[in-house]
Design a protein that fits this description.
Rossmann fold; 15 strands; 4 helices; about 45% strand; Tumour Suppressor Smad4; 6-stranded antiparallel β-sheet; alpha+beta; about 220 residues
Length: about 220
């Protein structure tokens, strides 16, 4: 079985939260980076699927925990950002319980390979081949000149812990659902047992980047 989405990347992210079947994504938006065909090629795409002329691409997702409670999976990214306009938050970043940085910033993004070409890219993160199982950790407007994005294995336990004196924050997953995060609380993410699955006809990731991001 497959699921057909008609819209853009937001439609795909919504569907991924609800289902685990492969998605055939038809683009009806301006960008549609994750989509496979434009609307005028939807019919021919369905015909190819019925003939079995397609591949299934699997991409890593992150399972997300707030104070030890699993909330939901991130297909693109999770963002921890200030809950107060014009106020920064203070937090520590830990990998497998080892401290890698303490920051004061507007927030931080933890992105999957899929999400690396989204919000994380706009704050200086790298483009990541979706076949590489890594996570991108990208601070948002850090108050520290030496702060740079990190790339870590996605199966590591990545935690962001607000300091005891930090302002409150919001945890936002795939730009959709949000959760309150208070001073002293911790958000963690690691590789999920679930995958994002897409119907593909052969166009490479690099070709998509060249056509939709570089040009």
């Amino acid at each position: 079985d497959i699921v057909i989405t008609v819209g853009g990347d937001g439609t795909i992210l919504y569907a991924l939260q609800e289902i685990e079947k492969p998605i055939f994504a038809v683009n009806c938006s301006a960008m549609g980076f994750l989509t496979e065909v434009n609307a005028k090629f939807a019919k021919s795409g369905i015909e190819r699927i019925l003939k079995g002329d397609y591949n299934i691409e699997e991409r890593a997702r992150l399972k997300v925990f707030l104070e030890g409670r699993r909330v939901e999976d991130a297909s693109n990214e999770l963002t921890i950002q200030t809950a107060n306009v014009a106020k920064i938050i203070e937090f520590s970043i830990l990998i497998n319980e080892e401290l890698i940085d303490r920051l004061r910033a507007d927030g931080i993004i933890i992105a999957t390979p899929t999400g690396a070409t989204g919000y994380a890219l706009s704050v200086g993160g790298p483009i990541v081949d979706p076949g590489v199982d890594v996570a991108v950790i990208a601070p948002i407007a850090p108050f520290k000149l030496a702060s740079r994005p990190w790339i870590v294995p996605i199966d590591k336990n990545i935690c962001v812990e607000l300091s005891e004196k930090s302002k409150d924050a919001k945890l936002v997953i795939d730009g959709r659902n949000s959760y309150d995060v208070h001073a002293g609380e911790r958000v963690c993410a690691t590789l999920s047992e679930k995958k994002s699955r897409f119907i593909r006809f052969g166009e490479s990731f690099y070709q998509t980047v060249r056509l939709k991001l570089v040009r």
